[in-house]
Amino acid sequence: MLRVLAVASAALGPRAAGQVRTMASYQLLVPPPEVLRKPLSVPKRLLLGPGPSNLAPRVVAAGSLQMIGHMHKEMFQIMDDIKEGIKYVFQTKNPLTLAISGSGHSALEAALINVLEPGDSFLVGTNGIWGLRAADIGERIGARVHPMNKDPGGYYTLQEVEEGLAQHKPTLLFLTHGESSSGVLQPLDGYGELCHRYNCLLLVDSVASLGGTPIYMDQQEIDILYTGSQKVLNSPPGTSLISFSDKARNKIYSRKTKPCSFYLDMKWLAKFWDCGDKPRSYHHTTPVISLFSLRESLAIIAEEGLENSWKKHQEATTYLQGRLQELGLQLFVKDPALRLPTVTTVAIPAGYDWKDIVSYLMDHFNIEITGGLGPSVGKVLRIGLLGCNATRENVDLVVNALKEALQRCPRNKL
Ligand SMILES: Cc1ncc(COP(=O)(O)O)c(C=O)c1O
C-alpha cells in the first residue's frame, strides 16, 4: 500500500505534496491561438434584416467613451436618464421601469420568472416564434401553459382572447405586438382592459415594434412591456428595456416563492435601478458601455420625437411594400392594417430557394435580409427598416438588389 502511494506521489510531483510551484515549472498545454494574431476585421454591411440594425453614428461614438465604474455617481445618473427615456418611449409613468443587462430574451424571462409562480395559469398567443418561446419559459417555471395556436400570419381578436380568458382564468396573457417572424402587427387597443376584467395581467413583447409604431403602455393598460436595444433604437444588442405596472408590481411583491433566477430578480433590480426601493444597492456589474449607447439612442429618439419616428417607419415601409409589389412579389400579410411598419415579410417567390436570394444580396451587395424564423422558415423573406435604416435610399438599394437576385438566382420552372 505504502509503495503504491509513493509511486503516485512521485508521478504527481510537488502537487501531491501541496508544495508551491515556481513559475518555471508551469507548462502551457494550450498555446496562444494563431488566429488572434490577425487584427480584428469586420465588414461594412447594410443590416436590413429584422435586427440587429446598423448603429446610429452617435451611438457608435457613445460606445467608445471611457469606462467608468458601475457604482459611480455618474453611472447612477446615466441609469436614471435611461429610466426617463424608457418611460418616454413606452409612454408610461410606472416607477418600476429599468434596463436589463441582457438581450430581448432576458427581458422576456425577467417578466415571466417574476410574475408567474409554479401552478399559475398562463395564456399565450403562439402565432409565431416569440409566443412559442414564452410558452417554453412558462413550462420551465412550472406554470400551466395554455397556448392559443395559430399559423404564422395570424393575430388575436378581442373575442378570441376573451374566450381564452374565460376558459383558462390565467394570471397572465402574453401577446407579441410586432411578430417579427411573420410580419404581423397585433392590435392592442382594448386588450389590457379586457384582461383586467378577468383579473389577468397583460404582457406585451414590443422588441420588433417599439419606436416604429404607436404603443401607449399606460393608456392601453399593458402591465408588462419590454423591448430590445438593437432594433429601432439602433443600439448594440445586449440590453433590453422593461416596465411593470403597479398591478404587475403588486403581483411580484406578493409572491409566495422566490423567482428562480437571482440575476433577473426584479426586487433586486428595482433596488439597483432605484425604482422606489431604498437604499440603492449593488446587484451585478452592468454593461457600462452598452448603457452609454442605450442612453444615446434614447436621447436620439427623444430629440426626433416618437410621432416622427412612427411616421418615418410607416412611410419608408409603405414605400418598400409598394416597390416589392411592383417587382411582382407577394406580401405575406394580406391585410395592410396588420402589416408591421418595421419588418416586412415577403412570400418566397415561386421556384426560388430563399437561401439563394439571401446569399446573393449578402455576397454581391453586402446587404443583409433574412429568411423566416421558427414556424415561418421556408415561407418568407424578411426585410427590416429599423431606426436610422428606415430611409427611401435604403429601400431603393434593397429593391434593386432583389431585382438583380431574382434575375440571377436559379429558378426551378416546374
Ligand atoms: C419580437 C421579438 N421578440 C423577441 C426577440 C428576442 O430578442 P433577442 O434576440 O434580443 O434576445 C426578437 C428578436 O429578434 C424579436 O424580434
UniProtKB/TrEMBL annotation:
Q: Which UniProt keywords apply?
A: Pyridoxal phosphate
Q: State the reactions this protein catalyses.
A: glyoxylate + L-alanine = glycine + pyruvate; L-serine + pyruvate = 3-hydroxypyruvate + L-alanine
* Cellular component terms (Gene Ontology): peroxisome
What InterPro entries is this protein classified in? Answer: Aminotrans_V_dom (IPR000192), Aminotrans_V_PyrdxlP_BS (IPR020578), PyrdxlP-dep_Trfase (IPR015424), PyrdxlP-dep_Trfase_major (IPR015421), PyrdxlP-dep_Trfase_small (IPR015422), SP_NH2Trfase/AEP_transaminase (IPR024169)
Positions contributing to substrate binding: 382
Instruction: State the needed cofactors, names only.
Output: pyridoxal 5'-phosphate
What is an annotated GO biological process for this record, any one? glycine biosynthetic process, by transamination of glyoxylate
Enzyme Commission code(s) on record:
2.6.1.44, 2.6.1.51
Where N6-(pyridoxal phosphate)lysine occurs, the residues are 231
Q: What class of enzyme is it?
A: transferase
Domain named Aminotransferase class V: residues:
66-397
Cite the SUPFAM superfamilies for this sequence: PLP-dependent transferases (SSF53383)
Question: Quaternary state and partners of this protein?
Answer: Homodimer.
Q: Which family does it belong to?
A: Belongs to the class-V pyridoxal-phosphate-dependent aminotransferase family.
Protein name per its UniProtKB record = Alanine--glyoxylate aminotransferase
Name the source organism: Chrysochloris asiatica (Cape golden mole)
